[in-house]
């Protein structure tokens, strides 16, 4: 009995995990365990012997059982301690600041412009950036010998060898969308077309890729007066001021007659660009009454319909509104610049709710 006690208590003490401990339990107290078998032998004993042996065996069984349970609890605690040591988390650490992206000023201003013109009943139209020679030039009454077609201004696409058709171009303005929109919708029509345009030019206010928004309004009796009101109304709303000073300068475009370029009063003092003051003017758009040949190219009868069109530089008005002096920085993807001039993704510009707040 003492030998059994010593053997099993030692085995319990030595068990390193719950699996081994269970093996010890089965070897001692399981159905075919050593102590269980001894219990069974009691039946063959003489009654006087059986009584004493039975009591001693039961005590031994209880003792080993208690040791097994205690050891099992200790092993469980140790395993938990081990997990707590390896899986801890310091909830007092300071949070990491979240690096949030920002909306680029060009995207922001495009949304603002769209919101304002939507309020005046203009829908958004789109066209491809790789445009055919016909849509970019011919349909807009730009003759083959016009300087805008020359290599120094326009990016021409490569042609397959032997292809004698005029090459496609990277559109040099958003005006081809006028033709596409007229063809698709007919008259009356009121659309704006924001998007990327391309010209070989690079300085503080020019980049080879930039953004324009085209405007087109055709009906039976639309005049220059409507154009002037729409543009002044737009500028007041866009620049969020009561008065902006615009200068309509007589000009020439092949696709409008008469034509006007519009400048806005600004100042460059101390390298800062400000609107509404100073004695500089920055050209922001070209405009005019849509040429009859352009209406015809768009499938609209010029004897019945007339209207205005304009093309405005989105990057230009972004520079003006947000005081950004160099256009080239717009497209350098410098994170410091983007964080400084970018807008929160959650501020959708609306005319009623505020454009840039
Ligand atoms: N397409 C002209 C440009 O790129 C702007 C313009 C558009 C002028 C519509 C008149 C009418 O400069």
Would you give an account of this structure?
By secondary structure, this protein is α+β, with helices and mostly antiparallel strands. The chain folds into two domains: 2-86; 105-341, Bira Bifunctional Protein, Domain 2 (BirA Bifunctional Protein, domain 2), CATH 3.30.930.10. The chain is 39% helix and 19% strand. It is built from eleven helices and ten strands. The protein has helices spanning 2-14, 18-29, 34-41, 47-86, 105-119, 133-136, 176-185, 224-239, 292-297, 314-322, 335-341, and strands at 123-124, 130-131, 169-170, 189-198, 209-219, 246-253, 256-267, 274-275, 280-290, 306-313. Strands 1, 4, 5, 6, 7, 8, 9 and 10 form an eight-stranded mixed β-sheet that branches. The protein has a two-stranded antiparallel ribbon with strand order 2-3. Strand 6 and strand 7 form a beta hairpin. Helix 1 (2-14) runs parallel beside helix 4 (47-86), helix 2 (18-29) packs antiparallel against helix 4 and helix 5 packs across helix 10. It is rod-shaped, with a radius of gyration of 42 Å. The model has no long low-confidence stretch (mean pLDDT 91). Bound molecules: phenylalanine (PHE).
Any descriptors?
10 strands; two-stranded antiparallel sheet; 2 domains; binds phenylalanine; alpha+beta; BirA Bifunctional Protein, domain 2; 357 residues
Q: Tell me the major beta sheet.
A: 8 strands, mixed
| CATH level 1 class label of the largest domain | Alpha Beta
- The computed structural class is alpha+beta
Question: What gap, in angstroms, lies between the N and C termini?
Answer: 89 Å
Shape label: rod-shaped
Please indicate the percent range of residues in DSSP E strands (runs of 2 or more). 15-25%
- Quote the average pLDDT: 91
CATH architecture of the largest domain: 2-Layer Sandwich
């Amino acid at each position: 009995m003492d030998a059994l006690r010593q053997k099993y208590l030692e085995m319990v003490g030595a068990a390193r995990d719950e699996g081994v401990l269970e093996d010890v339990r089965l070897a001692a107290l399981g159905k075919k365990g050593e102590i269980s078998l001894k219990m069974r032998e009691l039946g063959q004993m003489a009654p006087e012997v059986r009584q004493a042996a039975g009591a001693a065996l039961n005590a031994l069984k209880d003792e080993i059982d208690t040791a097994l349970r205690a050891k099992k609890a200790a092993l469980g605690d140790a395993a938990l301690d081990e997990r707590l040591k390896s899986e801890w988390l310091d909830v007092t650490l300071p949070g990491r600041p979240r690096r949030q992206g920002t909306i680029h000023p060009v995207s922001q201003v495009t949304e603002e412009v769209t919101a304002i013109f939507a309020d005046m009943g203009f829908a958004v139209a789109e066209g491809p950036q790789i445009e055919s020679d016909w849509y970019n030039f011919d349909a807009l009454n730009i003759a083959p010998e016009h300087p805008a077609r020359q290599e120094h201004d326009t990016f021409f696409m490569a042609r397959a060898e032997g292809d004698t058709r005029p090459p496609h171009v990277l559109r040099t303005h958003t005006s081809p969308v006028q033709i596409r929109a007229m063809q698709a919708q007919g008259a009356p029509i009121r659309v704006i077309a924001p998007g990327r345009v391309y010209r070989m030019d690079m300085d503080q206010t020019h980049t080879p890729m930039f953004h324009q928004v085209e405007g087109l309004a055709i009906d039976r009796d639309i005049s220059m007066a409507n154009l002037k009101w729409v543009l002044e109304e737009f500028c007041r709303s866009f620049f969020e001021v009561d008065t902006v000073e615009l200068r309509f300068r007589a000009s020439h475009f092949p696709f409008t007659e008469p034509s006007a370029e519009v400048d806005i009063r600004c100042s460059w003092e101390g390298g800062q660009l400000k609107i509404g003051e100073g004695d500089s003017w920055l050209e922001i758009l070209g405009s005019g009454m849509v040429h009859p040949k352009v209406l015809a190219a768009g499938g609209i009868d010029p004897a019945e319909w007339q209207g205005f069109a304009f093309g405005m530089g989105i990057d230009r008005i972004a520079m003006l509104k947000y005081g950004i002096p160099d256009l080239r920085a717009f497209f350098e993807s410098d994170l410091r610049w983007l964080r400084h001039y970018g807008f929160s993704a959650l501020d959708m510009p609306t005319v009623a709710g505020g454009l840039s707040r």
